[in-house]
């Protein structure tokens, strides 16, 4: 009996033919593609124009490059920890009038006559050349010139002067605009310094970068202290808030293991003697607690190193938590989470300048 082979349906034949043409087209397009790696030798297919040795070398090079890029992405630059930038605290936009006033303040610039002359070391520091102390050393060494003459300590400069360090002209920046002020909620374990020998992350690494000036910290907080840190572009504002003669109040929330007696609280108000001199709280108030932990709210008018901790240690009480909640007229916002920052608006900065007795650009009023 004669058998007949069943024919495939025509649509299936057309699909098979199309698939074959598609594979041929892909092979043609990939003919001049990037060199193949050694993975193709695992399946037994030998690439044209590439020897096994070449393919292995290409695979090893590609793998090493990928590992290097991965390591560079994960490893800290310059041996430093990976920096996570602080997030800005969310806030509502002001009214149209407030926005318009802030825009005007942001655009306002002082004239050369209003800015006047500035001490050379201060102007150089503000221009980002280095710290004031470093600039004083440069000037004393005769490495700074103004309008072609070697400068001396105490020299003053103004806009338009030709200032050079080691013969190279410095692009000077001037305090001719409203300063910026940032409130940062410092976390425990962060350093308040610009350079750490161990390469650890500092609070300055967490702040937004500035192109025309630099952040100046208003006071410091030690490694294990959290809370309010203030940064500004005005060195005069920072000096006004931290210099001892202005007696700016600092308020802290303190948790200790143990409890102060009434007599000890009275002594802390009156003053006790520490290794570096007398110290006292202008205000101290018990805030309750649980078990062995007791909270206190304290206020003092100076900021010596570990002063609050040492005052409690004077009575053999260990501080287990310390948070700064206020510095002068600026208070830590309740919605400001740890590791976040809040930048004051132009109208708020102007109010701070008036409170500190400073001009719009941060200079002291005469």
From TrEMBL:
SUPFAM superfamilies hit by this protein: Alpha-L RNA-binding motif, Pseudouridine synthase
UniProt region (Disordered), positions on chain: 1-83
Documented EC number(s): 5.4.99.-
Domain RNA-binding S4 span(s) in chain numbering: 118-179
Keywords linked to the UniProt accession: Isomerase, RNA-binding
InterPro entries assigned to the protein according to its UniProt record, in alphabetical order: PsdUridine_s_RsuA/RluB/E/F_cat (IPR042092), PsdUridine_synth_cat_dom_sf (IPR020103), PsdUridine_synth_RsuA/RluA (IPR006145), PsdUridine_synth_RsuA/RluB/E/F (IPR000748), PsdUridine_synth_RsuA/RluB_CS (IPR018496), RsuA_PseudoU_synthase (IPR050343), S4_RNA-bd (IPR002942), S4_RNA-bd_sf (IPR036986)
Top enzyme category: isomerase
Start-end of Basic and acidic residues biased regions: 29-43, 66-83
CDD domains to which the protein is assigned, alphabetical: PseudoU_synth_RluB, S4
NCBIfam families attached to this UniProt entry: PRK10700.1, pseudouridine synthase
Similarity section: Belongs to the pseudouridine synthase RsuA family.
Protein name: Pseudouridine synthase
């Amino acid at each position: 009996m004669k058998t007949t082979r069943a024919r495939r349906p025509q649509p299936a034949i057309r699909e098979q033919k199309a698939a074959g043409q598609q594979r041929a087209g892909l092979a043609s397009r990939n003919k001049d593609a990037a060199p193949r790696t050694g993975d193709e030798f695992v399946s037994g297919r030998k690439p044209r124009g590439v020897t096994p040795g070449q393919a292995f070398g290409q695979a090893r090079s590609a793998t090493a490059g990928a590992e290097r890029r991965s390591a560079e992405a994960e490893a800290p630059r310059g041996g430093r920890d990976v920096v996570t930038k602080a997030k800005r605290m969310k806030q509502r936009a002001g009214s149209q009038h407030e926005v318009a006033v802030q825009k005007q303040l942001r655009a306002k610039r002082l004239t050369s006559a209003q800015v006047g002359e500035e001490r050379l070391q201060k102007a150089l520091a503000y221009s980002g050349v280095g710290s004031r102390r470093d600039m004083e050393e440069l000037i004393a060494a005769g490495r700074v010139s103004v309008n072609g003459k070697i400068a001396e300590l105490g020299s003053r400069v103004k806009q338009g002067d030709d200032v050079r360090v080691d013969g190279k002209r410095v692009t000077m920046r001037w305090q001719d605009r409203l300063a910026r002020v940032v409130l940062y909620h410092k976390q425990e374990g962060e350093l308040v310094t610009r350079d750490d020998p161990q390469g650890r992350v500092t609070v300055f690494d967490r702040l937004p970068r500035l192109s025309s000036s630099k952040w100046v910290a208003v006071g410091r907080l030690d490694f294990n202290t959290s809370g309010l840190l203030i940064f500004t572009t005005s060195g005069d504002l920072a000096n006004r808030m931290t210099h001892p003669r202005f007696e700016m109040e600092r308020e802290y929330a303190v948790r200790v293991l143990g409890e102060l007696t009434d007599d000890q609280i009275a002594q802390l108000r009156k003053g006790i003697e520490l290794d570096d001199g007398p110290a006292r709280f202008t205000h101290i108030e018990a805030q309750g607690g649980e078990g062995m932990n007791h909270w206190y709210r304290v206020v003092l008018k100076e900021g010596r190193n570990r002063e609050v901790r040492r005052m409690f240690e004077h009575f053999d009480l260990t501080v287990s938590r310390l948070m700064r909640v206020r510095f002068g007229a600026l208070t830590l916002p309740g919605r400001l989470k740890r590791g976040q920052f809040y930048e004051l608006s132009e109208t708020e900065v102007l109010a701070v300048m008036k409170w500190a007795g400073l001009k719009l650009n941060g200079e002291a009023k005469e």
